[in-house]
Batch of 2 targets.
Target 1
Amino acid sequence: MADLNINIYNSLTRKKEKFVPIKYPFVGMYVCGPTVYGDPHLGHARPAITFDLLFRYLKHLGYKVRYVRNITDVGHLENDADEGEDKIGKKAKLEQLEPMEIVDYYTNRYHKAMEQLNVLTPSIEPRASGHIIEQIEMTKKILEAGYAYISNGSVYFDVLKYSEKYNYGKLSGRVLEDLYSNTRELDGQHEKKNSFDFALWKKASPEHIMRWPSPWSVGFPGWHLECSVMGHKYLGEQFDIHGGGMDLLFPHHECEIAQNTVAVGENSIKYWIHNNMITINGQKMGKSLGNFITLEEIFTGNHKLLEQAYSPMTIRFFILQAHYRSTLDFSNEALKAAEKGLARLLKGAEILEKLKSSDSSDVNATELKEKCYEAMNDDLNSPIVIANLFEALKTINSIDNGTLKIDANNLQILKETYNTFLFDILGIIPEKKSNADSEVLKPVVDLVLNLRLKAKKEKDFSTSDYIRDELTKLGFKIKDTKEGFEWEL
Ligand code: ZN
């Protein structure tokens, strides 16, 4: 068991705190999952990879983690508030499918993309539509406590009433007075006492497809309710970590805290962790901006903004090269750099396997190990871990070319540290070269290099140099050996 002193930034207290789980060694972690009405995109990759890093690291340290990540399949309305159509219902109507066909189709697509990104499967992946009874129960509790009201068959959370006793805005830092002036009056808002009240239960309009009976109306639960319900159902009245993207901080997570406070108890969740957003060439990603890129488009290169395809591991590495609380700008230049950097680190792992130890050592591998743990313990600083791995790579190359010596003990520590952090904790997997590379490329390059060998024997140096120079331009490294040649791409 390594050092357990992880410091993690808690959005609730706005500072880094020492991570102390409520019931050591068990850790309960809930992360808001996708609303499944479209293909998984870049915006899905960052929270999934951020919390996968945390999940992997906590497990590596020996914690027993129960990781719950939900699927939102009902109740998420178009404008993220209480108006507009259900996102899934709208898509179902558009494509003339059952809403659950939409849900299953996109859930499968999401799972496939997550597998490609080597994101571990959570311990439990509950769906909102499977927890309607529990959502009705929590609504009843909030009504009984006097913090909600019924209006025209819908039930709304009474934010003003709640604010008399509790702090609505404690997570997001929003102040109620500002919410008064900032919220627009929308259609149907006359049902609410105040524009900032939010729905626990909505009466279904005649055209609304997904609907269930309740004591108040035939309708559907409000979006914020599902996470309060499923989090506490599977992780208990108090649990350690709630995560998600920064875009969910308000209103989604603020509303969750208000619901939890009334229905479960104050401070039922200890650490709130949020990852920052991805921008594309400096702009926010959005369908209307034409810079919306799905993961499949990235993996195939099939998008006007992409100069080439980028593999899932390039995307994973690119995301981990930034600290999760920093913004991350997506550009072809940055991705190509990530692709190259990752290839070098993976090559380093191959060289490392073949290194031989000496009797003496110029290398202190324990230092590397400590630096990597220090970085992870400092609010999951994956870019510093990666910088340390690049330092280690220099050492590996120097040992390989004979500039440095390493003894057996240090070699063992170097191997363990390099492989543990690169593969187990950062979650990188060596990608299989494409079939074209392995099945077609090798015989073709061998053929060309054999022609070069023949030219050399016949003292036709202009041809042999020409072949070498052209292959080098294409990115091949060619080495002349006693037996003939060696090459790599
Ligand atoms: Zn949520």
Target 2
Amino acid sequence: MANIIEKPETITPRPNLPDYDETYRTFEWKNAYDQVAWDDRGRLNAAESAVDRHARSPLKHKVALYWQGADRNEEYTFLELSNLSNRFANVLTSAGIKKRDRVFIFLPRIPELYVSFLGIIKTGAIAGTMFSAFGPDGLYDRLHDSGARCLITNSSLKKRVNEIKGDLPDLEQIIVVDETDVAEGEISYPEAMKKASDTFDVAMMSPNDPAFMLYTSGTTGKPKGVVHRHLAIVQQHMTTEWVLDLHDNDIYWCTADPGWITGITYGILGPFSCGASVVVHDGRFDPDAWYSVIEQYRVTVWYSAPTAFRMLAQAKDAHKNHDLSSLRHICSVGEPLNAEIVHWGMRAFKLPIHDNFWQTETGGILIANYPSMPVKPGWMGKPTPGITAAIIDDNGIEVRRGVEGNLALKPDFPSLMLEIWKNPRKHAEYFMGDWYLTGDRAVQHEDGYYLFIGRSDDVINTSGERVGPFEVESVLIEHPAIAEAGVIGKPDALRGEIIKAFVVLGDDYEPSDDLESDVRRFVKARLAGHAYPREFEIVDALPKTRSGKIVRRMLRAKELGLPIGDVSTLE
Ligand code: WT7
């Protein structure tokens, strides 16, 4: 651990920004409540604070959303976005959607996704998002567990929904965004929107009422539904302003899809709340296309992920073919940001990439290389104002600086999840004494900066996306030839980790190339692309505890040639 304690090199911050130490020392959440919009009965609505209040302000004709699609581009002002989401809220209300009903979105990054997300929240219903790469199994888990009453999708994604619709008794309505001639029991978005009024009486909610939810992976069990409350907008607003340094004269690009929390908090709610113009690029990763987005929209603030920056760094001189001079601030989240990538960023963009840390469950940034602090390449940064972080041992006792332990937080910040949907036991597992546990291991340096060490469980982080080994194993064993499966994350220079599957074949099956390609096809059809194991290995047996649990750490140790550790509880 000696290398961690050394004084690392830092990159000096820009001058004239709010002082970190002073803000951290004096800040209290209640002093930030007036940054969002409340009624005189102490109620708020996250969508109202994000968009509607700007539609009533001098910003109303400012572009809120610049959308770049494959063959056309569109722009929506704050007023237009407010009116369209009002219309959609009316569509839902006419369809019988009430407060707390779950309404899910299964769409690519098209304007209707943003309109419907805001519209759902305005009705007081709970908006759920799903990444458009999900296959039928991923969809079923989410729609079934949440008991979603309504789903918004398009004609091509609808085919995957149709495969499972019969097993979803709660799913009463499907709204199709690109069809006027819809099937029985479906609603045509274009038709319904045309008829709906663009005024809507936004449901003002209690701070702790749920606003949106999304599913994330743990070590065991199916993905769990993380529910966030309307009050989270306070922290989403403040961290967008402080950490992303976003203001109402910025053009901002967040590369994350709203199927993940980053695409919601810092792709929709936070940036709109700060009055910034948000750029949405509905396309796949490609260095030239990405740099063209920055160039074309004159993007000033850019939020992306280490895996994307690593792929851009591999594209060598691609940045030199574009005018990227509009950029003034760059941030990164999702997995450890390698120091060499920060240095590459300095060369390519003349700007440091600011790493920050948070989780689906925390709804907003917790630890960051704050814009006014020196950037310490390789380190996550310091707790943002209003956040108390600590490193604790397995008994919940704080350890000395420089010692590795569990990264924990005081659970007293507005964007911490409200609950795990219908699963209070899972929710309780996150807490120990006065602390919320992140499930991550970290070290705090003498100077206060935190360094990420790794997960304390088997959760895999591939290209910044969280994958539970259990979900992948469950799909693998659905294949008739596979008797058992154990799945691990294997370190990878580009993706952080890749997924490797160890499988045991059933008695009647022999390993062959045909079998392997059949398994690959099978898994690919059922799991979202990122959850697909890039490596397979057929083994005779899996290491297990006496109680029959697969010991993934042994699979990992074997794979990496590491010491196997304590085996006293093994079979
Ligand atoms: C997990 C949360 C909300 C951000 C997107 C991911 C890892 C996140 C960092 C970072 C090292 C990081 C942690 C965390 N992680 N940011 N800056 N450095 N690791 O959200 O899918 O809920 O994943 O991602 O392991 O617990 P998520």
